[in-house]
Structures are given as structure tokens and as C-alpha cells.
Please model this.
Amino acid sequence: MADAPPSKPLLFTGAKSLSTRLILSTLTGRPIRIMKIRSTTSSTATGLLPHEISLLRLLDAVTNGSRIEFSMTGTGLSYAPGLIVGSGSTTSTSSSTGNRAGVVRHEVPAECRRGASYFLLPLALLAPFAKTPINVLLTGPGCITSATSHGDVSVDTLRTAILPLFARFGVQNNIELRVLRRSNPGAGGRGGGGEVQLVFGHQVRLPKTLHWMHPGRVKRVRGVAYATGVGGAMNARVIETVRGVLNPLVPDTYIFSDVSSAPFVAAAENSRGGKGVAPQDKKKKTGIGFGISLVAETASGALYSADVASPPAGGVTPEDIGRQAAFQLLETIEQGGCVPKVAAETVLVLMAMGSEDVGRVRLGRDVLGCEEVVGLARDLRAFGGSGWGVRDVDDDGEEDGRGDVVVSVVGRGVGNVGRKIA
Amino acid sequence: MAVALGKRKREAVRVGRRALSEEHEGSDESESEADMQEIFRRHFEARFEPLPEQPKPTEEEESDEDDDEEMVGKESEWEGLSSGPEDEIEVVEHALNIPGGDGEETLSKKELRAFMSAKPPSAVSIAASSTLAPGKPTEDDEAGEKVNLKNDLALQRLLSESHLLDSSTSTGPVGKNRHKATDLRLLSLGSKSSILTQQKMPMAHRKGIIAKAATKEETRRREAKEAGVVLEKEKKKRRKGVEENRWRDRGVGGPSVGKFRDGALVLSRRDVAAIRGPSGRGGRGGKGGRGGGGKGKKRGASGGTIRI
Model:
């Protein structure tokens, strides 16, 4: 692999779907170069943002031999991917003793505004193709486990609505997502102080080909209401409202409640203070708030999810949060298809990385037509994938097509380079 | 006909209700209550049948206190109507199907634990359901399949163990032969050694056995040689402790040469030599090489190693 001639880097512009491009680059082995990252949108915040740099660091930690270069202003990035080794190589000193399953500890900076799922979703996409199991502990003063206003899902949704989809690709063993400490976005939406550990111990040569044509009807709704640093009554009120909306529609509704205290993080101002400052004074509480994650499961195992969390500024009642979440769930269900918007990227990338066979999945028209999915299709094309086949479900003679669309994706058959027979 | 009848009735009822509600505009509460009832009533009538005219409670206090009585009154009026020859009243019950109210009973403990554990919840259920997925075979099929399997196994065994059977026993091996048959089966299933070989014995005993086998073999070879019979080649004596199958099982997906360690293929000196082949000078030691006398000395010095 190291001897392979360096191919010409693919050129991209803009900061959009940066994580997707990085993941595709790592999976396909093509180097990329991204220019004009926020070069014109704002005069104050040009270039890469803290969460993007943190993601690059994380990629560097789980791969071996990646080269990452920034331009002087931070508006340009060149990335040459290495081999996805997982967490085994970080403890190379202990490899002689046989304990090779290390834990990559990734500290998220305090300025980060994105949720933990911003890091965990790409990581979960890389993990099946790694050489050794992935075991990453996301921690630090910027780790937000709840949903954020930037569209990140909460870690509960990630665990209950997105990770189960990997089972459809034959990846289902030793997958765990442990929420060690919860956190909502801190003041101004910045930072958190949560802690999440992703263990992804199932590596495959090639994911199975997916054929998923029937979404089925919703049979149950589950959810997790979380409250950090606020009373458990918030959870109760959120749950009450959600059940008020959903119970007449789906009697099998159950929502769990998770109440935890607010996490402590080292206060940035005081940490440089004098020697006389007591240790507890150097810390501050952060990430106070509440929210809810809802997952509806259909008879065929499709998972629709909704995520709403209280804004960091506060001022929204739990009833409003609950009603929003319930309506958001209903809207997602209405969009139809077997895969909702939040999971579409994961499923489509896994299909594209599968064996050289045509996989099919049924998507809602709005899901396929959204900006992210169309952008993903273009990016996949740029990375040398074949185009998608799209046709209406109704053309197959099905009565209840609901305007859905069947997307056929041909796999690249590259799969796991680390697992190839040498 | 019934539809037309119903429409006419509804009109009459509406007018009547409105007139009544206008009468009672005095208090806000009674007004809103009347409105709500009106809405419900209209909805019901739109879907089913017109309701009969009901006496409006004249006073609010009365309506609160005499709720039960009023219900009874309604009840009796319903009875009267339904007894009519044409009116078929459809009874629809609207009830939420929530056993236990707060749903705690609906979830088994197992399911609770599965959802809130660190693992993705439905990975388990999908795996479980996929094992159950193939259609249930009918009982006849199942029984036939079982019998077939049994016969198959019996035939296989008969074929493989027929040499153990003597003429007297035809149903199956007995006694010593039964043990031998078991041993054969175990060996075919992957047992490393026969169960009939004795594991533990005094050292002198074992030495004696080995010595006896060696002398037996030696006499056989000597006699064959004297008689001019060509025997099979003698097996090379292996070093002590080296197993018959000395190559480690490399598993599937591993490299066919070298070791894959820390993301790099590591080749030992021997691996490199094997790849390069015997062309290297003195690669296999011994006499190799086509060189003249002058190179002989050098060969001795390098001693069959290759520097990388």
C-alpha cells in the first residue's frame, strides 16, 4: 500500500460535507485537497473550525500513515489517507505483551459546538473497515452528548437508531456505545464535558449487500429523555407531553428517563490562576439542560428518530420540547422510506463500499432529495463510484408506494484493505 | 331513505340546540360547555346517526349535582328510540389500549435492559428474529427429515466401520469392536489421538514398547534387504519435541509469507531467503554454487546468511 504510486488528489471547494469527504477519502484511499474553506463567508471566522480540526486529529489517531496539511490561513486542507488501523496501534509499546486492544482517548476542545455524534458517525463508518477493533473514548471539555442546534443527533439516537443499521450489513458483534457522562451544550452552545466511549469490535472484509424494499408500519416507539444538571421533573414533563401525542397513535410507547448531574470541567480562566486557588475552584459546571431522543421501529426494522434538546440559552418549557420531538418523529415517519435522513449517509456509504453487487434501498422522496444525500451522491461519483440508479416504487406495481424511491447502489468491492489477503 | 331521514332530523336538532344555547347565555361556563357538547354532538351526528333531542339542564348547579340522574334519563330515552323498528344504533367504543396506564407492565425486564444497555438495542432482536425467519416446516416434513437424517448417519457408519463387523453380529459392533468404532468416530470428528492409546504408563514400560517397535522395524528392514525386497523409505527421525504438524495454522486472511505486525509485513531472514530462491550464493548451505575454487573460501565465511 505504501508502495502504491501517489495518485493525484481530488479537488474540492468549500466547507460543506467535510467529514463525508474525509471519510470517503479514507475508505477509498484517494488523497483529497479542499480549498476555500469559509474563505468568503465571514471575515472573522475563516478556515477550519475547532470541531473540524478535532475530527482530523481523530482520523489521524485511528489511521496509520495519514498526511494532513493545512494552508497558512486554514482555508485549505490536503489529506492523504493512510491505513485504518483502529485502536490497536496506539499502544504499540504493549504490543509485545499481547495486549493490543488500546483505547484512543480523544479530547474535544472547549470551543467545539458540535455534538459527539459529529465525531462518532464518521468513526462508526470507518470502523468496519479497520484492521483492529476501534475503541475510542471521547472526552474533554467540548464533548456534548445531547442533540445540538447544528443538527447533530444525540448519542442515544446514534446508539438506538443508527448503530442497529450496521447489523443489516453483517456488522453486529461487539458494538457498544457507552455514555459515561452526559452533557448538554454549555453556555453559548460551546463545550460540554461529557464522556462517550465507542467500542466497535466487528471488522469485516466486505459489508453484505443490502436489499431493503419494505419499510413496514410503525410497531413501537422508544425513547430516552435526559436531564443534566436540572431536576428529573423536566424529564417527566417532556415524557408526559410526548406520550400525550404519541400514545393514541402507537400504544406501545415507552420512554426512559435518565437524570444526571452536570459535568465539571476545568475553568479556562482560573486554570492559569495563582497557586492559592483550591482545586474545586478551578472547575465549573457546564452542559446544563435536557432533551429527548425518540425512535420509532417498524415491523421490518426501519428506525425513524427524532431529537430535540433544550437550547443553551434556556427559556423553552419541557412541554414545548416534548411536543416538538413528537411532531418531529411524526414528520420523519411521514417522509417514509426504510432509512430516515439522519441515517441515509451511513447506509448509502456502506452500500457503496460493499461487494460488487447491486444493493437496493427504498428512500422517501424528501430524504433522497435533501441536500446532504445529493451532495453525497456527487461526492461518491467524484471518488470513482458508479452512479446511483433511481426509480419510483410505484413502477414496480406496488399500491402503497407513497411516492418513495428505490435507490440502487453498486458496491466498489474494495472493502477492507487491512483485511485483504496479503 | 334512511340517509334522507337522518339529514332532516339533524337540521331540526341543530335549530333546537342553537335556540337552547341562546337561552343560556347568562354564565360563561355553561356557554362553553354547551358549545363543546354541541361540537361533539355535531361530529357524532356527521359520522353516525342524529341524536334525539335532549332536555337542556336549566341550571348549572343542577347539571353538576344531578349528573347521574341525567345519565339515567338519557339512558331511558335511548332505550325508547332503539326499540323503534328502523333505527339500528351502532355502538362504538373509544378507549385507549394502554394496559396498566403508564406502560411499565408492557415492557419485560429483558427488553428494558436491552434498550438501555450500551449495545445497540435491536441488533439483538434482528439477530433473534432472523434465526426464526425461515418458514415453519410442517410436522410431516420435520418427521421425514429426522428419519432421513437418522438413516443417513446409520449408513455412513455402516460403511466406515464395516471392517469391524464379523459375521455373527449384524446390527452393530459390540464389545471391543464397539470401542474401536467409537474411536474411529472420534478420530473422524477431529480427535487428535486415539482413545485406545494409553496415556500414562511407567517410563520403563514405555521405553520397552518403543525399543520393541524399533527392533521389530529394524529386523523387518534387515530381512527385506537380505531377501532383496524393496521397502518404503524410512521416515526421518524428527528432533525431540517437534510435532508432526510443525507449521503453525496461519488462519484465513493472514499473509502467506511473513507476519503482519503493527500494520507492516515483517519478513524474517528465512522468509527472504525463501522468496529469493536458491540463486543466492550458498543460499541453502551445502555444496551449492557453480563457483570455482577461489570462491569456496568466501562461501565458508558468509555461511549461508543473506544480509538485507
Residues 33 and 78 of chain A are 4 Å apart (CA to CA). The radius of gyration of chain A is 22 Å. Residues 89-100, 270-274 of chain A have pLDDT under 50 and may be disordered.
